[in-house]
Structure formats: C-alpha cells, structure tokens
Design a protein that fits this description.
heterodimer; A: two-stranded antiparallel ribbon; two-stranded antiparallel ribbon; B: 75% helix; globular
Chain lengths: 614, 392
C-alpha cells in the first residue's frame, strides 16, 4: 500500500470499523476510535510533507480500473497536501471534542462517527484526486455526508429542513461541476488535471460553471443562505462543516483551477467582486443575530469572502494570502464552533439574550473563545492578523484599493460583532435561570479539542512561517506560481508588494504608541461609568447594551442590506416551478392521461409526425 | 454474452421476492412473478433472435398479471389501460423488427421511416415516454410496491436491453434519426420530471422520475458513441435496481403507515420504518445520479450525450430534467419520511426477511456503483485515454 493512499484509507477503514463496533461499543469508545483514525490519517499526511515541501508530486493508484478506463488515482502536490493536513487536523480535533459531546446521545452515534470520518475522507479524496471524475465523486461524497450530518436529528423539523436546504442549494449548483466536467471532456478528451490537453482546451465556460458549484459549497453570495439553516446539527458537525470539510471544498476547487488554465483573466475580477460583496453581506447579517451559532455561521460567509477574494486576485501573493487565510479560518472557526457547542452543552441554550457571565463558571472555555475571537477579528499576535495582513498586501499589490477598504470595513464589523458575542456570553451578570443551574466547565476532552485549535491560532500568529513554508508556499508552487512573498515572526512580510504594507503598519503602530504615551503623560482622568451612546437614546449609566440592543442597532444601521436575502428569490423560483408543473399537468393531463383513446391518438400522431420528419 | 446485467437484475428480483415473502403476497402474484422473471431471463439468454423478442413480450404480459393479482377494482382498471399500451407496443415493435429483418436489412425510404416510427411508438408505449404515458399514473397508483419493484428490476431492464439489442443490430435507427428519438427523449426527461414535482402519490412520483430516467437513457442511444452506449448499459441496470429498491421501501413504508403513502398526508414515516426510510433515501439518491451508484456512473456519460446531440440546449434540458427529478424526490424524502411523525400509532415492525432484503438492495446499489467496469462494454472507444505528462 502506497503511503499516499494511507490518510484516505485510514479514514475509510476507521469509519467502516464503526459498523462492527455498533452492537457493543459505547458512544465514547466509538468516538475514541474515530479520533484515533483521524490522528492516524494526520500522521500519515504529515509523513508526506517533506516531499511536497521539496516540490515533489506524489502519486498512487487506489483502484486500478474503475470507470471508463480511469483508475481511482491520487496525486498529492502542495495544494493537495495543504487541504489534506487541514482536513485531517481539524477532523482529529473536532472528533476528540465529540467524544464527550456525543457521549450522552441516545441513538445514532455509529451513524454519526461513520459519517464524520467519511466526511473528512471525502475532503482528502477531493484534494488528492488525480482527475475530475474522482474529484466529482468526492464532491458528491462530501455533499451526502453533510446532508446526513446536518439532518442527524431527523425527527426534528428544524434539522431536516436545514439538511434539505443544504442539499438543494449545493446539489443544484453542483451540476455546474458535472456539466463543466462534461464540457472539458468533450473539448479535450481528458479529465486528468495534469494532462497538457486539458490546459490547452480548458475554456472559460467550463471554469465559470465549476466556480458556480464552488460558490454554493463555499457560501458565496447569493448561494450562501443554506448555512445558517444548517446550524440545527450537533456542534461537531457545524465545526467540521465550517472549518474544514465543506465550505473549504469550494475553495479547493477554485484554487485547483489555477493548475489547469488561465481562467483568472476573465473570471478573476467578477469573483473578487463576489468575494467582496460576500464579506460585507455575511458580516452585516451576523451583526443582527442573537443565536450564537447563527452568528458564527454568517461570519463563515464573510470569512469565506476574504478567502475567495484572495484567490481571485490571480497572483502568487493573492493565492498565498487566500490559502493562508483558509488554514487560519479552519483553526479559529473550528474553535469558535466548539466553544459555542460547549456553552450550549453546559447551559442548554445558545441564545445570547439568555447567556452572560459564563467566564466565571467556564474560565478555560472563555479564554479559548477570546483567542479565537481575536483571531477572526484580525488582532495582532494571532493567525487571523497575519491572514488579513497578507490579503491586504496582495490586494494593494494588485492595485485593488477598493478591496482593501471592503476588507477593512468587514474587519471592523467583525470585531464589533465578536465584542457583542463575547460580552453577552461570558461577561456581565449571569442571568438568574443560569445562576440557578449548575454550570460546569467543558470536559477535558472537549477542552483538548478546542484548545488544540486555539493554540494553533496563537502559534501560527507568532510563527506563521511554519504554515507558509510547510504548506502554503508548496501549494502556490504546485499551482504553477513563483512564490512572491515570505513571512517571518508575527507575520512581518517580505518580498514583492509587502513594503507598502509594512511601512503603513509601522506608521499605525507608531501612532498607537504615541497616543498611549500622550494618554499616560497627560494624567488621564480616573475611570467613571458613563452612559453608552447607541446611535439613539443613550443607555443609562451602569447598564450595558445587550445582544438585542446590538441586533436592533444593526437592523437600524444596515436596514437596506437585509433586503439582500436571496431566500425569497429561491422560494419564488420553487413556487413558480411547482405552479408551472401543476398547471402543465392540469392542462395536458386530460389529453395525455385521462382519456385513453385521445391519448393514443395524440401519441400515434406525434410519433407519425416524428417519423415523417426524421 | 455479458451476463453481469442479467445477474444483477436477477439478484434484485430475488431481493424483491424476499420483501414480497415478508409481506405475504398472494399465490397468483407469485405465479405471475415466476413467469415474469423466467421469461425475461430466458429472453436475455436467447440472444438476438425472434425467440428473445417473443419471450420478452410474454414477460411484459405476465407483468400485467402481477397487477391483476392485487384484486382491487383500481388494479383491474389500471391493468386494462396497461394492456391497451402493451399489446400495440408488442405489435409495433414486432412489425419494426420484421421490416428491418432483425437488423439484417435497411429498407430505406418510406419503409425505413415506418420502421423507425414503429420502434419509437412501441418503445414509447412500453416505457411510458411522453406523449404515450397514459397508462403509467393508473398503474403506479394501483399496483403494490413489490409489483412495481419487480417490474422495475426485471421488465424495465429487459425493455432497455431490447433497446440496446436494437442499437447493436441496427444503430442507424438511432444515430441517423436523432431527432425522431431525441424529441420524445428530451420531452420525457423534462416533462415526466416536472409532473413528478406536481404529483402527490409517492409510487407515481417514483414512476415519473423513472420515466425521466428513461429519457436520459434513450439520449445515450441517440448519442450513439461507445461512451454514451456504455452510459445506457450502466444506467439501465442501475436504474432498475434503484427504482426496485425505492418501490420495495415504499411497500414496507405503506405497511407501517397502514395506507398508500402520499406527500399530502404522510409525515415522519422514518420513525416507524427507519430501515425502509434509509433504503428509500439511498435509492432516491441513486435514481437522480448520486454516487456511488451505476446511475451516477451513467449520468456524466448521458449528460455528455445530451451535449453532443443538442449542444448547450441539450445540456440545459438535461440539467432541468435532472434537477426537477431531484427536487421531486427530495420533496418525498422530506415530507413523507423525515421530520416529526404526525401519527403516534404503534405499528408492527417489518418482517426480518424483508428488512434484510431491503438492506441487500441498498448495498447492491452502492457496491455496483463502485465497480462500473463490470457492466461496461470493455470497448477501447469507451475509455478515457490518459496521457502521462505534466503541464508545461
């Protein structure tokens, strides 16, 4: 067995092992097996890392003869390795978190762990697929796993409604992948990424169709509206869906298109615009949420906008920024979801209006949240800062100041949104009903899972060069670019295009330092409570704006943006489709179905006409 | 002769028989079922000959016996309709074969057009292609789930095998009369799927989605290249298996619900029949081309055929048909099977033998989808040639 196949096979075998374990193993044992499986996959993937860092492409055949003479073959280059490591690492951490989280679940844990491991395996297969047909197989595998997991509690209406929405939006858009694949085969006669014939014949139409498929998976506006509805799943599912395995499938597909043909010239700008709109729409919708998981879901929309905008730039710098952002997002979003799950597990709610003061009862959970929240907001010393730093640098290098402005506004609103969530969840007085309950800290296994990812947020914020040299740069090289930028400690970038950003940031840091010195030297007045200005009537002294106040303020400030919800459009299309189908059945049914002689006569006449014209 | 499709079809029939055994079908039903399976299998083994055509006709007529065995007035009326379709179809296809001398003669001129018309009319009647589907809603509404399952996995697969036989004997009937076949194929692909969206009875919805699938399969024959025809080979068996699993799951679901299941009235059936629910979902996914299934292995080839026949319009229609079928089945899954149950009546669990057979059907769908090469023609022209090379 080739080492290249090991990460995928470990997950498939480990997943299938859940079936014989089902009759006698506890939920906890199943969780341990699934976690061990993901760890084996991670170790196996890391063992391949030195080769991809040297720029090698590793190949292996999984099934020699599969379909139409094609093998199920794997080809691991830098990009495949990046997504493989991300999927296996996030999968291992989230499965570790699941051990305690799912321990009390009465039924369905075999289904849960089997599907979770296959979900991760699907991403690994997609990333390593040597041709489009296997990639499409993996694409659908990921889609089916997510559908099954989102609808895990299949007796609950909200859960199955969410699952249906995920399936419909992503599958219908996913026909873009299938049709793109067909067009490519008709034009080039091949489905192999690395075949020169594909590069020669790869058209913008096929690329655009595949990007539509990717947009739905990666929650780009206006195909994003499935993601908040998918929140009625167990939290580990949300964490995996958002951090690594689902939304990142679309990111992978967009990145992979770089290794095929020069599509970005035509499609890069529209995609960057889509990314920019998605940044703003996602964060503005997040601002008005009072459900913690829905808030995080809309931030996923916004953050994916940053990633796709980076990839759309079409430069080595932009692609590096997008891929670094992709890895960083996996870490902080996985962490945030696991914390949200821990809070729900401990309090029984994720409604911000019913939460508060949890930092005392759940100190480690609160610390972990703060690290991840700082990372998503782009606070220095975290990986989120480095990601935004790189992205803004790449956009400036390309001359797209508007994209920097959009990203900057998005970052401010993200910080504002997480300030709301942090304060309302962890600080202030604890609501009476929570104070009466015995709120407990998350279990060690849960803390380990989310703590490991939060540690990554800090570690790769302090030393981003580990990710850059280990995963991002080989991926950029694998896509045919010459690396243009390097990072060192704290994300200080060097290389093409980074000078302006570094100078700008130095000025900002100097200004902040001078401001702090003036503040200290001018003998600032003692702290006193003040009324909070909310844009309308001030909140009285001593009070604080709650989640509902924030939501109300957001609604007031961004009212026109909330009209950009695409759901009414999709609902209208569905209504018109069913109405049209019903009307056609009503009109033609009496002729073609109800009266046999007429139906036979009409049919015979139609066939005679066809034969005559043939 | 490649017997793998026949063997898979027979295995599917055996699983359906086990479901029927668990449900206690009547003696008349078993007699009709035995004739259907035996004659359909014999027809395949007989090879390209008049004997094959005759045996296949007997299988179709015996399938009407399955419906009559139900014994209800609705079934008798539906059986009459079905016969009104099958008898002319048998005559038309027989005349067609006679005109082309079992494929050895190409008559040319008007006779050729007549032969093409006879084949199109005959097969359209047998497969309920638009505009000749007048019998389908009545039959699908009146027949039991097990009857429909057996028809799907034996009779429908046999009709598709007849079409493949016709293609091999006289490919010009398809490739040189593209639009004569293409119009009913595209019409069925989209129209039947649209009507599936509008229908309420679950058996009728699945039957209409099947007709849409037949439209896809005929496109493969019209496309006519080796890759498209391989798509038909894979799709025909995969489609029969998936439809059979769906109908068998419906049969068990109806036993649990105690009534015919409909998207208008049935809710949360998964709580009462969880295995049937899971199998229906696997089957429904396969019917609309989710992998791993033979229909998925066929789908990309058939989309390709649609593009070759009618370019972007063909691809657009294929997308529309596939999407409508998908939406119709998602509606069934979410309105009938998943979600909270409205009825809290305790229902007896499905017989173990039926449950095992259902699971076997679902596994057959998945496993066969993982080994499509077993069902491919093996022709070099149907293979994608890979070139070792690195992008410059």
């Amino acid at each position: 067995m080739a080492a290249v196949t090991l990460p995928f096979l470990a997950l498939v075998v480990g997943g299938l092992l859940q079936i014989p374990l089902a009759p006698f193993a506890s939920a906890r044992t199943k969780g341990v097996v699934a976690t061990a499986t993901a760890l084996v996959a991670l170790v196996a993937a890391l063992s391949l890392l030195p080769a991809t860092m040297r720029g090698e492409t590793l190949s292996a055949t999984l099934v020699p003869a599969w379909d139409a003479g094609l093998a199920i073959a794997l080809r691991v280059d830098g990009l495949a390795m990046l997504f493989t490591v991300m999927g296996a690492a996030a999968g291992a951490a989230i499965l570790a978190f699941s051990i305690d989280y799912m321990a009390e679940e009465a039924e369905g844990t075999t289904r849960f762990y089997l599907t979770m491991t296959l979900f991760v395996a699907g991403l690994l297969l997609l990333a390593s697929a040597a041709d489009l047909l296997v990639a499409f197989l993996a694409w659908e595998m990921i889609g089916l796993c997510s559908y099954s997991l989102v609808g895990f509690w299949y007796r609950q209406k909200a859960a199955v409604d969410g699952a249906r929405k995920v399936l419909i939006i992503t599958h219908v858009a996913g026909y873009g992948f299938l049709i793109g694949l067909v067009l490519i085969h008709l034009d080039t006669g091949t489905l192999d990424w690395a075949d020169p014939r594909m590069t020669a014949g790869f058209g913008v139409g096929a690329a655009a169709l595949m990007i539509v498929a990717a947009m739905a998976k990666s929650v780009m506006f206006p195909l994003h509206s499935w993601i908040p509805e998918a929140m009625n799943a167990p939290t580990p599912v949300s964490a995996l869906l958002h951090s690594a395995c689902y939304v990142k499938a679309g990111v992978y597909l967009i990145a992979r298109l770089y290794s095929i043909g020069p599509w970005t010239v035509t499609l890069g700008t529209p995609l960057a615009i889509v990314g920019a709109v998605t940044i703003l729409v996602g964060v503005i919708f997040a601002l008005k949420q009072t459900d913690l998981k829905r808030l995080l879901a809309f931030h996923t929309v916004s953050q994916l906008g940053y990633i796709v905008a980076g990839l759309a730039l079409g430069t080595a710098y932009g692609v590096a920024a997008g891929l670094f952002y992709c890895l960083s997002h996996a870490l902080f979003k996985g962490t945030l979801f696991m914390v949200a799950g821990s809070v729900q597990h401990a309090t029984g709610t994720r409604d911000l209006t019913r939460l508060g003061g949890l930092a005392g009862a759940m100190p480690w959970t609160a610390r972990i949240w703060i690290v991840a929240a700082a990372a998503i907001a782009g606070v220095p010393l975290t990986n989120g800062f480095v990601a935004k730093w790189l992205l803004f640098g790449a956009a400036l290098d390309k001359g797209l100041i508007w994209l920097v402005v959009v990203g900057w506004i998005g970052s401010i609103l993200t910080a504002f949104s997480f300030l709301k969530a942090t304060v309302n969840c962890f600080y202030g007085p604890m609501p009476t009903e929570l104070a009466r309950a015995s709120i407990h800290e998350a279990s060690p296994a849960m803390l380990t899972g989310m703590g490991a990812m939060a540690f990554g947020c800090i570690a790769f914020g302090l030393a981003p060069q580990i990710l850059m040299s280990g995963l991002v740069t080989p991926a950029v090289v694998g896509l045919g670019f010459t690396p243009e930028v390097e990072t060192s400690w704290l994300g200080v970038a060097s290389g093409r295009g980074s000078v302006g950003v570094t100078v700008g940031a130095t000025l900002v840091a100097a200004a902040a330092l001078i401001g702090w010195l003036i503040h200290r030297l001018a003998q600032a007045p003692a702290r006193v409570p003040v009324a909070v200005f909310t844009g309308g009537e001030p909140i009285p002294v001593g009070d604080r704006p709650g989640a509902v106040d924030f939501a109300g303020m957001a609604e007031q400030a961004f009212h026109p943006v909330y009209g950009l919800d695409p759901d009414p459009l999709w609902a209208s299309i569905w209504r018109r489709t069913t109405a049209g189908a019903t009307a056609s059945l009503g009109a033609l049914g009496p002729v073609l179905v109800d009266r046999v002689p007429i139906a036979l006569g009409v049919g015979a006449a139609a066939v005679a006409l066809l034969a005559a014209l043939a | 002769m490649d017997l793998s499709p026949l063997l898979l079809s027979l295995a599917g029939a055996a699983a359906v028989a086990l479901v029927a055994a668990g449900r206690g079908e009547t003696r008349r039903w078993w007699a009709a079922a035995a004739i259907v399976v035996a004659t359909a299998a014999a027809a395949r083994i007989a090879g390209h000959s008049w004997a094959r055509i005759g045996l296949a006709d007997v299988a179709e007529l015996a399938a009407v016996g399955l419906l009559l065995a139900t014994g209800t007035d609705a079934a008798r009326n539906a059986a009459k309709r079905w016969l009104v379709a099958i008898v002319p179809a048998i005559v038309a296809i027989g005349l067609g074969w006679a005109l082309i001398g079992l494929g050895h003669v190409r008559p040319g001129g008007s006779l050729e057009r007549i032969a093409v018309g006879l084949f199109i009319g005959g097969f359209a009647l047998e497969l309920a292609l638009l505009p000749l589907m007048f019998w389908l809603p009545a039959v699908a509404g009146a027949a039991s789930g097990t009857t429909l399952a057996l028809v799907a996995v034996v009779v429908d697969v046999a009709v598709m095998a007849d079409l493949l036989d016709l293609f091999e004997a006289a490919p010009w009937i398809f490739t040189e009369h593209r639009w004569a076949w293409g119009v009913p194929a595209f019409l069925s692909l989209v129209g039947a799927a649209a009507w599936a969206v509008a229908a309420e009875a679950v058996t009728v919805i699945v039957a209409l989605v099947s007709v849409s699938g037949f439209g896809f399969l005929i496109l493969g024959l019209v496309g006519g290249d080796a890759m498209a025809v391989d798509g038909v080979r894979l799709g025909a068996v995969g489609h029969g298996l998936a439809a059979a699993a769906a109908f068998a799951a419906i049969a068990i679901g109806e036993d649990a619900a105690g009534e015919r299941i409909s998207i208008a009235t049935t809710r949360g059936l998964a709580s009462r029949a969880p295995v049937a629910s899971g199998v229906f979902m696997v089957a429904a996914g396969a019917l609309v081309g989710f992998p791993p299934s033979l229909v998925a292995d066929a789908h990309w080839r058939l989309f390709r055929a649609a593009a070759e026949i009618a370019g972007p319009v063909g691809l657009g229609l294929a997308f529309l048909g596939a999407t409508l079928s998908f939406l119709a089945l998602v509606r069934v899954v979410h309105r009938v099977w998943l979600g909270p149950a409205t009825a809290t009546v305790a229902t007896p669990s499905a017989p173990r033998v039926a449950t095992v057979a259902l699971v076997a059907l679902a596994l057959a769908i998945v496993v066969s989808g993982l080994v499509p090469r077993v069902f491919e023609s093996g022709s070099d022209a149907a293979r994608i040639v890979t070139v070792a090379g690195v992008r410059p």
